[in-house]
Design a protein that fits this description.
Elements lengths: L5 H27 L3 H12 L4 H26 L4 H19 L5 H15 L3 H11 L2 H33 L4 H23 L12 H5 L4 H8 L9 H10 L2 H21 L2 H8 L4 H13 L1 H15 L6 H19 L3 H29 L5 H31 L1 H35 L1
């Protein structure tokens, strides 16, 4: 590879940082106009006289549609301009939130929620693609984890935003507080996405990230050795040839499925378990719930630094270490009668469970060519939401109903072990790719 000039590299670095800022803001904004829906449910229940079953159906429609959309939209994102793809999706989510603020019929609300889930799937693909095209292997750990924490911030900050809005406007204007205010903030973020996010480097008149930083990931090497070239394929041919037929892609799917199983198995049942079984007050339970989510922010940033610094080419070793600690913490959580220790174990679990999840995109950039990253995100998103979240919610609840809470947590421990084994398979797969590339 030829060395690039300092002037070109300086421009590349400037646009690189702009793009990361843009997808960080954009993905956080997607959560502003999705997580606010949960905050509207109590008001919807009273105003539309909805049963728990009807409320559950609304939530299920959003979750299932989002899982399907994450798969389909991320495949399309591989052939689209990530800047406009993300901005268009967020704009449509803003419009739907405004419409939901005026909707008074349950059946119409279901239709709007389904459309919201559909367009919510347009956020993650462009984000991963942008990181893959603009950041080299030596920086992808930090870049991916910085981007990944945007959803923790977006999902966490919407509650105080809505709370302040309703407190100022009054509960009679809850529709404005829960739908219109987050929509306005997200609309501002659309403009920021358009300003900051850039196209792919070559479309900006720059060399590729591999040429700028003089390095190449395993997935890029294997793609160059392939007989079929991506420029001659449509989006679904790229998906089939470089993702669906790639065993390393399926190892990442398994990791994501079991991470979601453990994550949803903990976060979904924290309120009920701590209130009914452990005897926590609502305030104590709220603290534990909040710490489970927010503890992930510093831990994922640190994980990104550690992977870039000490785990190059062995990315999945760090998640394995984290999962060993999670295994111990789940046991401690279920056996602790102390409010303090139950909260500590929940906090550590939340702190660490997001690390395997945040490392999956980094590992994907190692084993999957950059031009197929959106397709890989789509497959994982589809499987994690439809299978992983169901294992942590429906299966967990079924097991608890029939065999008790302890057996439910033992089921999660099986998920932790299977996640560790999947990380091992993924790590071994990377080593095989590099060994084959070195021989070629």
């Amino acid at each position: 590879m030829e060395q690039v000039s300092q002037e070109v590299k300086s421009r590349f670095l400037r646009l690189q940082m702009n793009s990361l800022i843009g997808v960080w803001i954009g993905y956080a904004a997607y959560y502003l106009v999705r997580s606010n829906f949960n905050l509207a449910l109590p008001y919807l229940s009273g105003e539309l006289d909805l049963s728990k079953t009807q409320l559950g159906l609304l939530s299920s429609c959003l979750l299932i549609t989002y899982g399907l959309s994450k798969g389909f939209m991320s495949v399309l994102a591989d052939k689209a301009n990530p800047k406009y793809f993300m901005a268009i999706g967020l704009t449509l989510c803003v419009i739907l939130n405004v419409l939901m603020g005026f909707t008074t019929h349950y059946s119409l609300f279901i239709g709007l929620v389904i459309l919201l889930g559909l367009f919510q799937g347009m956020g993650v693909g462009p984000s991963i693609i942008t990181v893959g095209y603009w950041f080299p292997r030596s920086q992808r750990g930090r870049a991916s984890t910085i981007w990944n924490m945007s959803h923790n911030l977006g999902g966490g900050i919407v509650a105080p935003i809505v709370g302040v809005a309703i407190g100022y406007l009054g509960t009679e204007h809850w529709r404005i507080g829960t739908f219109a205010v987050p929509a306005i903030l997200a609309a501002i973020c659309v403009l920021l996405v358009l300003y900051f996010v850039r196209k792919r480097p070559t479309e900006e008149g720059l060399p590729t990230v591999e040429e700028v930083f003089q390095e190449e990931a395993a997935g890029q090497k294997s793609a160059k050795m392939a007989a079929d070239k991506p420029e001659n394929m449509n989006a679904f041919q790229v998906f089939y040839n470089f993702v669906f037929k790639n065993p390393n892609s399926w190892y990442l799917v398994l990791i994501d499925v079991f991470v979601y199983m453990v994550r949803f198995g903990m976060i979904t049942w924290i309120p009920l378990y701590l209130l009914k079984v452990k005897g926590f007050t609502k305030t104590e339970m709220s603290v534990a719930y909040m710490l489970f989510e927010w503890a992930a922010i510093p831990s994922t940033i640190l994980a990104g630094y550690l992977v870039d610094k000490y785990f190059k080419g062995r990315i999945m070793q760090l998640p394995i270490y984290c999962l060993v600690v999670i295994f111990a913490c789940v046991i401690g959580y279920m056996n602790s009668d102390s409010i303090l220790w139950a909260t500590v174990f929940a906090c550590i679990t939340g702190c660490l469970i997001y690390i395997p999840q945040s490392m999956i995109p980094v590992q994907a950039m190692e084993v999957i060519p950059t031009f197929a990253l959106g397709s890989a995100v789509g497959l994982r998103g589809f499987m994690s939401y439809l299978v992983g979240s169901s294992l942590g919610t429906t299966l967990f609840g079924f097991v608890v109903d029939h065999w008790g809470w302890d057996m439910g947590f033992y089921t999660l421990l099986v998920g932790v072990v299977l996640c560790m084994f999947s990380c091992y398979l993924s790590n071994r797969g990377v080593q095989k790719i590099y060994a084959a590339a070195d021989k070629a």
